[in-house]
Task: structure prediction
Amino acid sequence: MQQERNSPTLDDVAKAAGVSTATVSRCLNLPDRVAKKTLDRVMKTVDDMGYTPNFGARAMAARRTFTIGAIIPTMENSIFARGLQAFQEELRSRGYNLLVASSSYRPDVEKEQIRALVSRGADALLLIGYEREQAIYDYLERQGVPVLLAWAFLEGQVQPSIGFNNRAAMCSLANRVIELGHRRIGVISAITKGNDRAAERVAGIRDAMSQNGLNPENLKVIETPYDIQNGAAAFDELMKADPGLTVVMCGNDVLAVGALRKSKEMGLRVPEDVSITGFDDIELASIVTPGLTTVHVPHREMGRKAATELVDMVEKISNGRSAELQASLQIRDSLGVPGMSDTGGPDR
Amino acid sequence: MQQERNSPTLDDVAKAAGVSTATVSRCLNLPDRVAKKTLDRVMKTVDDMGYTPNFGARAMAARRTFTIGAIIPTMENSIFARGLQAFQEELRSRGYNLLVASSSYRPDVEKEQIRALVSRGADALLLIGYEREQAIYDYLERQGVPVLLAWAFLEGQVQPSIGFNNRAAMCSLANRVIELGHRRIGVISAITKGNDRAAERVAGIRDAMSQNGLNPENLKVIETPYDIQNGAAAFDELMKADPGLTVVMCGNDVLAVGALRKSKEMGLRVPEDVSITGFDDIELASIVTPGLTTVHVPHREMGRKAATELVDMVEKISNGRSAELQASLQIRDSLGVPGMSDTGGPDR
DNA sequence: TACGGCAATGTAAGCGCTTACACTATTGGA
DNA sequence: TCCAATAGTGTAAGCGCTTACATTGCCGTA
Result:
């Protein structure tokens, strides 16, 4: 069961090329410290032998990996995909690699993944959102691993972060909703426990209600895991509990798409009978019919900025600067004025 | 610029617990070879110090990583997400980890990623499709790294693979299309160069044409990269070049969704004016309106089987068994009979 | 009582690499 | 002509872990 790898080592290459291991190593890492002639000969040998350096050994000796780890809640859906793509591209252009892990929105899994990435020698870590045990931040500090948070930005937090204000963004969408005349609002949120983004978004809706003289207590909220099916089920539950709802605001586009689909099944027209809004502006939002009114998040910009900042942190150019990006409303057709329906508005 | 990590090492733990490094290592890896009392004391020390083993060092000493690498063409879209998720779950239950990389459908990038994963000590590799330089297989063989291919299955290939017959699957969909009366078929395919799945799918359509007495030469094919926008553009081009097309078969669902959207913009009704089909049956396929008729691929099953087989290969239980899975037609509303339109069919 | 056997632990040799330091030519300036 | 500076290369000490082998102490048995 012992793996019998006989891949060539630095030593093998050195012998074959008739130089010392130091020289081979230099050819690979600091080519201009080596005579052209030697370099050519060594590189040819490297190619001929199909030599690949052993990452573990290299990391151990050099005490760096040029690898940055990122832990996202989910790979299966595309919320983070675009941002991560940009993150990776930027990282690569700076000479770093990306190691991704996903936590399935589970704090215990995230913790495990953090240890795994540290164990693998990640030079720094990108994490999503603020909310996690303090012990984790302590651990990371002790290990000397810089961390940057993304997809969230809150004044006065200790941890450096690149993101936007989820609460304010959702509040501004809710204001728009209320402006249009909606009074009876239902909410389908992701599970807020352990997920500050989700919690902040719901809070943003309540803010808007208060600002407009509505009682936030009246807000009906259903929490459910990130999944189209769940969005559909939640919509059903919400509408059955209160058929007078004129708008259902969803914590993310995926839930909103589920709601949209369910509304169709229930024979409700959107936005005539009921309006639906999302959050994130993933590609799907522009594809469904009607197009989803949502909050546009600057994923790519966030990914790019996070990458440059994190590299700066690793290279001690910065010791962690936060940046707030702006999310904007993306108005499409799924949000309308209440009471457009022939069957009579709820407030007649 | 030198990272001054002072994270505790095995040695530190050993000293603190008053035992040798060997004992600490055993506590971590073979707990039942250690006296209960010692074990408890050591584990407590490990916890207290926040010790995390250094993966590189461990890999080097143990000559195994319990990590399996997978290189997929893209993370951004969800074709592979579901399969990969299942792959990972199964891997985890067998005590292995997954390391993912994406190649952006570029052979050179894939090659680089393969080296990177080998360099990181992957015990085995999962690759998509057959088509790549022989040199890569040779390299992997020399390195002693088992490989399994997925998402494709072809008789008589040397490499073990878990997948389905793309050609036969698409052929069966095309047969259905022709059965319904379609004669003028347009195709939007992914780039076939370096992508055997894409090429096989187009070939499958030609097979069906031959079988039904149509001339495969007449098939109009546009190749374009995997992206909704591109699908839309290709649809536009196809329909402008030949407005008489009654059906556009797409190489995957993403392109099909693009085509669907474009058809709407062009004022063409689906399937009355033109039918559209996809391939893969990603979630999106059931969400768009009309629902996409497509080929259902057993992603999860494929991921699961690939994981068990790959682990068996690493553990020398198997030296590579192939398995063919069945893809099936998923009939929805985007495929209809030609000439349903009031505006007159092409063959009036 | 003596001793084989076993359980628990320790000792130390690497695993494949980087890099500080040492060494040898070579070069150019005084 | 001599010497300092410099370029090119080699030597060897680890980096943090696993594991074969050696050692120790204990038990049960003859």
User: Anything to note?
Assistant: The longest helix of chain A spans residues 196-211. The two ends of chain A are 76 Å apart (CA to CA). Chain A has a mean pLDDT of 93.
